[in-house]
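Recap quiz, item 2
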Amino acid sequence: MSELFHVSSAPHVRAKTSTQNVMLWVIIAMLPTACFGIWNFGFRALLLIVATVLSCVASETVYNLIAKKKNTIGDLSAVVTGMILALNFPVTLPIWEAVIGGIVAIIVVKMLFGGLGQNFMNPALGARCFLLIAFTSDMSNFVTDAYSTATPLAELKATNGIIAPWNKYQLTDMFIGTTPGTIGETSVLFLLIGAAILVAAKVISLRIPLAYLGSFAVLMFFFGKRGMTIPEIAATGVDFGTLFTQASTYTLAQLMCGGIMFGAFFMATDYATTPITKKGQILFGICCGVLTFLFRTIGGTPEGVSYAIILSNLMVPLIEKITVPRAFGVVKVKKEGK
Amino acid sequence: MNKYTERLFNGIIKENPTFVLMLGMCPTLAVTTSAINGLGMGLSTTVVLVFANLLISIFRKKIPDGVRIPAFIVIVASLVTIVEFLMKAYFQALSDSLGVYIPLIVVNCIILGRAESYASKNGPVESMFDGIGMGLGFTLGLTCIGIIREVLGNGSFFDMPILTDLGFTPIATFARAPGAFLVLAFLVAGMNIVRKKMDEKGKPLAKPSGCITGDCANCTSKCADEKK
């Protein structure tokens, strides 16, 4: 018995995943859409992204210095927050407003609640909503080729959901992304490439995005402005085939314009602000989908993705409470009859 | 420090109704969109508070214990009505911008709180000074919040434009409801840091003493001090 055994408690096998690793994958996955945004909107988009990222990293450093804590910028989450936030800006946003957004995201939404993992709301989205209230006109000043124009989503709302051949934007434009909008939201193609990277790297599971997009699409298909069950449209006497085509085109357009794709894959999948249970994640996705549907159809503004996601973020503790899985080996106790 | 200045110090700093006792949150959050609104709301509350404390203290031995709350309300409501009419006559613009929050002073918890926990137990002069201290503390809190919200949310200071000329786009969030919560939270956090520092140094600012809630039935130690 001369050998000395080192005995330690579990876990003995560790995965190589680290926060830094995960965040790096998210950054890589956002690069395609960011590059497309820079190509589409010009050099100023790059400037905005850099400024916002720097603002986020600097805010985290300063906060940690003041609070006398270890600097946490090494986990790259501030960079991710900055990138997501910048991709949510219209390209014309003044730089100092973007910098304020970064400060609000990191200091108010993230660090004051205890830093990464403790924040109850997605920092980038919290800051976006702050800026949306603060600088409403700057935040919705969308430009292509130096002309202020309506986004496809606004146009869809204005035309009451009709996608006619004379519309400015067709489905193919929305798919490729040569439309006005925020820097990162326009290109469905590049967002899907990014999402594929995230899924392949096992950073996100498809539960939340699919539940989100699925519930949203179903609701839009049946109850949207051009949906199957809208009485005014049925009353015009169109046959079933036309109705079906109309509803599906409308649903596709709703899925491809605005920030829903970006939101579903990059913002609704944030670890800290979404449920950890599988059932809970599906519920969370449906919650986002229903809220986005309501905001887009009944709400006053065309877009509702960011508000839908942060409201769902707030519901996460409740969702987790009702989806607590049964512990292994525990027999369900029957409620006593009255 | 005699007991009158102690009352003033107590109301403005030690038990500041806005930052320490967290009383009267409804007007604090709602009317502080500008510095002048905060100041106006604070001062009108102060006037009501001072006279309410004085009258309640004078009548404290006549008011039967069982109906004291309705009796306080009658006194406070009469005073609020006077203030409301005076403001309508002489400060029309301020009265318009404060709107329903002036009549709502009747149910302001600072006034009822002070009546219940201080004026109904102490003499008229001390009660009056308590009212002045609490009222000024409330005014200070509201004006601070109002100034910050007005400068950031509107780029002006007491209606004088100071930042808009410099090409600053006002951060409108601060003029809306979320701004009220944010500014209040940051100010309370700042106040707590100061109090913590003072506490470490053993200064008397440390914790609010005396009865805050007026809930004598569930109060263990502090009311015993007051009763002696």
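The beta strands of chain B are 156-157, 160-161.
Confidence is low (pLDDT under 50) at residues 218-228 of chain B.
End of item.
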